[in-house]
Structures are given as structure tokens and as C-alpha cells.
Write a structure and sequence with these properties.
There is one protein chain. With about 325 residues, this protein is an alpha/beta fold. The strands form two sheets. An eight-stranded parallel barrel has the order 1-4-5-8-9-10-11-12, surrounded by nine helices. α4 runs parallel beside α5.
């Protein structure tokens, strides 16, 4: 007879009994994935009736505001009640200072207003960073090859204020500048936006898995150099806890770990250490790999989608940013 952790002996104890039927497996499942766990990242473009497929992200399409409003309505009907908004900015509007980021009539702000007017029940996470607006492709202002921290924060504050005024529910700084959470929180509070949440990309790594996203927002071709001086070293875990602690102290309501599957250990450590709302981003490279493998018949797409999302929940994530949100909602509904 074999003893397993001193909890039972075969043949009296048979773990397979609990796995014998679907009702039993579901009853004793330790982790549950729900459509309410999902946040759908979407890309908006100028024009009317316009769509642009993102070649490196099968199934992902940039949409003009009118079509995006329709798509978000369809997602909401499936139970997806949170969207993360990213703009593809006209290259003619990109400047070294990212001035368009603070334009109250920018593509981003017009999209926020349209979505909140049409779907007030849907929460909007609004990206705050300069890479869609910066002619250098960086998340901050660049001078003589150096990413300027404090000067960048000044622009991020103005960007946050125009987005909050447009109707953003959650300001989501993804730039990784030091000190931006506290400065943005103070500015929002002073401007009468104390109700607007901040979700900090607190543990954002300098990852190789972001390439398709940069294609989607049009920043990849403009990027000069890399982002290793402000995004985190993939070798580090304790540093992630320090970053999270600082952002919580500065007023973040929730925190993000990015990327997802390669960093499940970070998700688990953050959740266990701080017990705060913790989100994770299944980033573009993760999504693209899964879709490419499925297209080649190497993976069962539906099973892989749900299993990957369940892994995030098992690690402790409260919410999951995934380009497969609408797809997953349909799969969960059919289960």
C-alpha cells in the first residue's frame, strides 16, 4: 500500500472516484473561470466603417469607433463587461513629446466618450503611456537616447486627466516610470476624479512577447533601441514585489503583472504577498503563439484557450486581459 501525504491509503482511498463524472469534477474543482474574470483589449482606428486585420494576431481586428461600439455591445451581451482600449494613432500626429496623448479630442478620448454613451455598463480600462503617440516608439519622452522619467510623468498626468474627463473608469499607466502612480492619483483627486480607479502595470517586464501588440498600435516600426531601462528584467522576482509595494503605497487600486503565462510565479507571489486585486495580461505574443499552433493542428484551440486562462486563475489572478475574451465567453457559455 502507498501513502500519499499521510492523507489516505490505496485501495480504501481512490482519488479517481471524484473524477468519475462531470458533475463531481465540477463540484470539487478548486479553481473556477468565469466570463466576469475577463477584460477584452481592443484597438481603435480613425474613420467610419473601417476595419484592419492585425496580421500577427489572428482574429484580432482594429476597428473604427462606430464598429468598435457595435463589437463591445456584442461582447457585453456575452457577459464581457470590461474592455481595455488602445489607439492606433496617425503617424502624422506623433511627436517626440507625445503631445497628442493629452489632446481632449484625440482618437482615444472620442472612443471613450462613444463607448460610455452606448454601453455605460461596460468598464473601460484606458491605457496611459506615450508609445502610441511618441515618434520614438517609447513609453516616455526620449532625449539624447535617455528615457526621461519626471518629464514623462508630466505628460502622463495630462493624458490621464483628459481620459478621465472623457469617461474612463480605470486609468491604467503601462509606462513603468518611477513615481507616476502617486502623481496621477493626486492630479485626479484634485480635478474631481476621486472615483476614477488606477490600475498600475506594476510588474511589467521587458519581454520578447510584445511584438504583435506593437504592430497593432503602430509603435514597433518607430521603436529606437529597447525598453530595458524602464521595464523590468525577466530574471527578477523580488523587484516585482518592491514595484507593487511602491505603487500600492502611491494609491493604486489594483495591479497588473505582464506578460502572463511566463510569469505565473509573479502573479502568485504578488497575490500571496499583498492580497490586493491582481490582474494579469495574456499578451499578444502568447495569444499569437497559441493561435499559430492551433492553425497548424498542433493544439486544440478551444481547450488551449480555456486551459491557459484557468492557469491565471489558479495562480491567483482576479482578472485576465486576453484577446480571446469574446471567444472564451462563447466557450464558457456552451459548457
Amino acid at each position: 500500500m502507498t501513502v500519499v501525504n499521510g492523507l489516505g491509503r490505496y485501495p480504501r482511498t481512490r482519488p479517481r472516484r471524484l473524477r468519475g463524472a462531470a458533475w463531481s469534477r465540477n463540484l470539487v474543482a478548486e479553481t473556477h473561470l468565469s466570463v466576469t474574470d475577463l477584460v477584452w483589449p481592443v484597438f481603435v482606428i480613425e474613420g467610419e466603417g473601417q476595419t484592419e486585420a492585425v496580421a500577427s494576431m489572428p482574429g484580432v481586428t482594429r476597428l473604427s469607433i462606430d464598429l468598435l461600439v457595435e463589437a463591445v455591445g456584442e461582447a457585453s451581451a456575452l457577459g464581457v463587461k470590461a474592455v481595455a482600449l488602445f489607439p492606433k494613432v496617425d503617424p502624422s500626429l506623433k511627436t517626440p513629446e507625445g503631445r497628442e496623448a493629452a489632446n481632449p479630442d484625440s482618437l482615444m478620448c472620442r472612443a471613450i466618450r462613444a463607448l460610455k454613451a452606448a454601453h455605460p455598463e461596460v468598464g473601460l480600462f484606458c491605457d496611459v503611456a506615450l508609445d502610441p503617440y511618441n515618434s520614438d516608439g517609447h513609453d516616455g519622452i526620449v532625449r539624447d537616447g535617455v528615457i526621461l522619467n519626471d518629464e514623462t510623468i508630466e505628460v502622463l498626468v495630462r493624458q490621464s486627466l483628459v481620459q478621465a474627463a472623457a469617461g474612463a473608469d480605470v486609468i491604467a499607466p503601462s509606462d513603468m516610470m518611477d513615481g507616476r502612480i502617486g502623481t496621477i492619483r493626486d492630479a485626479l483627486d484634485q480635478a474631481g476624479f476621486a472615483h476614477v480607479q488606477i490600475m498600475s502595470y506594476a510588474a511589467k517586464y521587458a519581454s520578447a512577447f510584445y511584438g504583435p501588440f506593437r504592430d497593432a498600435v503602430g509603435s514597433g516600426g518607430a521603436l529606437k533601441g529597447d525598453k530595458q531601462t524602464y521595464q523590468m528584467n525577466p530574471a527578477n522576482t523580488d523587484e516585482a514585489l518592491r514595484e507593487v509595494a511602491m505603487d500600492l503605497d502611491e494609491g493604486a487600486d489594483s495591479v497588473m503583472v505582464k506578460p502572463g503565462l511566463p510569469y505565473l510565479d509573479i502573479v502568485q507571489r504578488v497575490r500571496e504577498t499583498f492580497a490586493v486585486p491582481t490582474l494579469v495580461y495574456q499578451v499578444s505574443g502568447e495569444y499569437a503563439m497559441m493561435k499559430a499552433a492551433a492553425a497548424n493542428g498542433w493544439l486544440d484551440n478551444d481547450k488551449a484557450v480555456l486551459e491557459s486562462l484557468l492557469a491565471f486563475k489558479r495562480a491567483g489572478a482576479n482578472g485576465i486581459f486576453t484577446y480571446a475574451a469574446v471567444e472564451a465567453a462563447r466557450l464558457l457559455k456552451s459548457c
